[in-house]
Design brief:
The protein is of the alpha+beta class. The chain is built from 19 helices and 32 strands.
């Protein structure tokens, strides 16, 4: 079985895009050699998954990427992975000490999860076991789908972990000692807790629970229950609570009125490994109860066969990864692709137990309705509606139906659609009403097995009403002003909540467009046309004097001076924009890029603006250039498809792929945000991108691999053949769809549902004549146009 051991990291810096690289023009060679035969597709995609990719840092501006290397099943509840000492979100590759192996993780930009850390070591317990950490080196660390291993400490303990959906199995191989210790740190390793408790049951089991939350400063909270069962009796035990160790005690509880990162409660178990060195531990989670965790364990891992559990989870990964077969490319490119697809399928996470029960947004226990298999949680919607939702909807509709229904269930129980829901709570993190385009994109790409009319009802409610509920959550901040003025004013005195008026207006316009698309799909034409008109509210913050989308005050005036104003030192982004600035948000009108280009002075003028914008590719929020590592600019490289210069999109996407992504710990241009960055890479490598949220439009770049087969749910397949595909050949000179020349820069996913064949002629030189007309561009939706 292949494993990855990484000992170095690829550096990523701010890159300059030299204009001549994408503007160079050359004639096509007159003599075309016979294309090579199609390479054999990868037969074992899990062998190319490198879980260490994205576990480091993306550079000074980017910061932490926050992926984790430990085992998880696809969309698993349990994600059993190491937490290093100095990481706020789990594992940091460049840190040399591990403080535990916690059961929940997320690649997010705030401290989150890290629940129930388990740490084996050899030696005395000491007087502060909750502070114990162990050193390790990467040359004794391995990871692959469903498996993680590392050797800890000077008195070495070899740790091996595997996991199913809700349950994990650990194998800890100690030295010959009577002081083999296992710590169970019930309080979060890094997110902080309001409550943690443990109870030692008999001589081989520990149960307990922990409450945490408060994601990015929000008021949400959740409780997680756990069971840990060992394959042999422990020889000694004890607990700690509020900084005091109590030998031979079986119960511990710590609680606080507010979230604490120094809350201490846990248990220690001692084993004698002088005869048998390996200690095995089964762990299980539930958000319902300890009994729920026990049922999950009994169903998913009833025995102790570590290798069979590992192999079964790896097999499950191969099943979902093989929905996309690739052939050719370099080993590093194959690693990047399948690891990106792997990271795209870790989230959202399973929230219901094996018996179908889950805790709802009303804090009551619910059971899945007929037809729904799983309740899911943890939707980083601001990040994932742009590309991940379409990938899920197109290739994994059974999961996607449950994803969408889970959000509908949240709304029915809590009264409103959640913005960035964590567990069973509202957080309201990031601006916009992002669950709306996420659900609409799932539907547009084929997930039709959920209650779409109910989803539409709650979408309209959130878009037209406002009410503060738990801890002050409001689905759409400033919606009363948006409806009255046609934009969210940027002056806090008027809106009462934000200095992100421009970005919030743009997000709401996208949200309204998504409502119009879903309404049209389910036959609600009045709603469709009403919200299609609202989808053009971006025009209300377009400043004709500067030809930029800008913050606007409640009196109708734009701020004096230029559109881009460098933020003051220490500020993360320009006033009026969430994590960005006027230049970066200036392209965020995916529903009507044609109208935006016209407002800028036409396609040629817009393309010139874009050329200047893409001179740098990953600058962070405070410079007026592309920030490829953040979500508002995800679709920006495809704008040339609309402007009649598609060869620039082809070159630009390839440059981002190859310069900002690499097969190492530092190999992503930004925080992965629950698969957002990774799904971008998957689409880019396929030569496609879901350019307009809420629709099935796929803007085109060019495929990275000579052979691609995308297996569709109905049994068909989209086959892409590009015999000369290579890093240095991004330019499309000819594209055939089922044998016919295709001179446009987009496809519709639903038109491919029965299967299709794409044949590319690629070159190292651009073709400036192909697919440049206005009729070749992806569709745009103008005023009142819902179809």
């Amino acid at each position: 079985m292949p494993f990855f051991r990484l000992n170095h990291a690829g550096a990523i810096g701010t890159l300059s895009l030299v204009a001549t690289a994408i503007l160079a023009v050359s004639s096509v060679a007159s003599a075309t050699p016979e294309p090579p035969a199609m390479p054999e597709p990868v037969g074992d995609p899990a062998a190319y998954v490198n879980p260490f990719i994205g576990t480091g840092r993306g550079g000074e501006v980017v910061g932490e990427i926050n992926n984790f290397p430990g085992p998880s099943a696809p969309f698993g509840m349990i994600q059993w992975s190491p937490d290093t000492k100095d990481s706020y979100a789990g594992y940091q590759y460049h840190d040399g000490r591990i403080r535990g192996f916690s059961l929940t993780h997320a690649s997010v930009g705030c401290s989150a999860f890290g629940d129930i850390a388990i740490l084996p070591f050899s030696g005395a317990i000491g007087d502060k076991p909750w502070q114990h950490t162990s050193g390790y080196t990467h040359d004794k660390e391995q990871a692959s789908p469903g498996y993680y291993a590392v050797t800890l400490g000077k008195a070495p303990v070899h740790v091996e972990l595997t996991a199913t959906t809700r349950t994990g199995l650990g194998r800890f191989t100690f030295p010959h000692t009577r002081d083999a210790q296992v710590l169970i740190k019930a309080a979060s390793s890094f997110a902080g807790n309001t409550m943690a408790r443990v109870r030692i049951v008999g001589d081989d089991t520990v149960v307990g629970s922990a409450s945490t939350g408060h994601f990015c400063g929000a008021g949400n909270e959740y409780t997680l229950y756990f069971v840990v069962k060992f394959d042999r009796p422990f020889t000694a035990y004890g607990v700690w609570q509020d900084g005091e160790v109590k030998a031979h005690e079986r119960h511990a509880k710590a609680a606080s009125d507010k979230q604490q990162d120094n809350l201490t409660a846990g248990a220690y178990l001692t084993f004698d490994t002088r005869k048998h060195q390996a200690v095995r531990a089964r762990v299980a989670l539930s958000y319902v109860s300890i009994d729920g965790a026990k049922k999950n364990m009994k169903r998913e891992i009833p025995g102790w066969d570590f290798d069979s559990v590992r192999d079964e989870t790896r097999s499950r990964w191969n099943d979902v990864l093989s929905r996309i077969e690739i052939g050719g490319g370099t080993p590093e490119q194959r690693q990047m692709f399948y690891t990106a697809l792997y990271h795209s399928l870790l989230y959202p996470t399973t929230f219901s137990d094996v018996d179908g029960r889950y805790i709802g947004f009303d804090n009551k226990i619910h059971t899945l309705h007929q037809g729904q298999r799983v309740q899911y949680a943890n939707f980083s919607a601001w990040d994932t509606y742009r590309s991940l939702a379409a990938l899920h909807g197109w290739l994994y509709p059974a999961v996607s139906n449950d994803l969408a229904q889970s959000l509908v269930n949240d709304a029915e129980q809590g009264g409103w659609l959640p913005v960035w829901p964590m567990a069973n709570g509202y957080t309201g993190v990031m601006n916009g009403d992002n669950t709306v385009p996420l659900i609409a994109s799932l539907y547009a790409f084929g997930a039709h097995g959920f209650d779409a009319p109910a989803a539409l009802h709650y979408m309209v409610k959130g878009a037209t009403q406002t009410k503060r509920i738990r801890w002050g959550y409001v689905e759409r901040q400033g919606i009363e002003f948006y409806q009255k003025l046609g934009y969210v004013p940027n002056d806090k005195a008027a809106s009462g909540h934000t200095h992100y008026g421009a970005s919030e207006t743009l997000e709401y316009a996208i949200d309204d467009f998504a409502i119009s698309q879903l309404a049209a799909a389910v036959g609600q034409d009045d709603i469709a046309h009403r919200f299609a008109r609202r989808a053009q509210h971006w025009r209300n913050i377009f400043d004709p004097a500067t030809r930029y989308l800008r913050p606007r005050h409640s009196d109708g005036k734009f701020p004096p001076g230029p559109a881009f104003v460098p933020p003051p030192p220490g500020q993360f982004g320009q006033d009026g924009f969430d994590e960005g600035n006027a230049a970066q948000y200036n392209w965020l009108v995916p529903q009507n890029m044609c109208g935006l280009a016209a407002a800028m002075g036409g396609r040629k003028a817009a393309a010139g603006r874009a050329d200047r914008f893409f001179r740098k590719l990953n600058v962070g929020p405070n410079e007026p250039y592309e920030w490829a590592g953040n979500e508002p600019d995800f679709a920006a490289p495809w704008i040339y498809d609309y402007f009649g210069e598609p060869w620039k999109t082809q070159a630009l996407v390839r440059r981002i792929q190859t310069r900002l992504y690499s097969a190492g710990p530092d190999g992503e241009p930004g925080n992965d945000d629950l698969g957002a960055q990774s799904s971008w890479y998957v689409w880019a490598a396929l030569g496609l991108y879901p350019a307009t949220p809420g629709t099935d439009v796929l803007a085109l770049d060019s495929p990275l691999f000579p052979y691609i087969r995308i297996h569709l749910p109905g049994g068909g397949a989209v086959v892409s053949e590009a015999p000369r595909a290579a890093e240095a050949r991004p330019y499309v000179h000819e594209l055939r769809l089922d044998g016919r020349i295709l001179n446009r820069t987009y496809l519709r996913a639903n038109a491919l549902r029965g299967g299709a064949k794409l044949q590319y002629v690629l070159s190292s030189q651009p073709d400036i004549d192909r697919a440049t007309g206005a009729d070749a561009a992806p569709p745009c939706w103008s005023d009142g146009n819902a179809g």
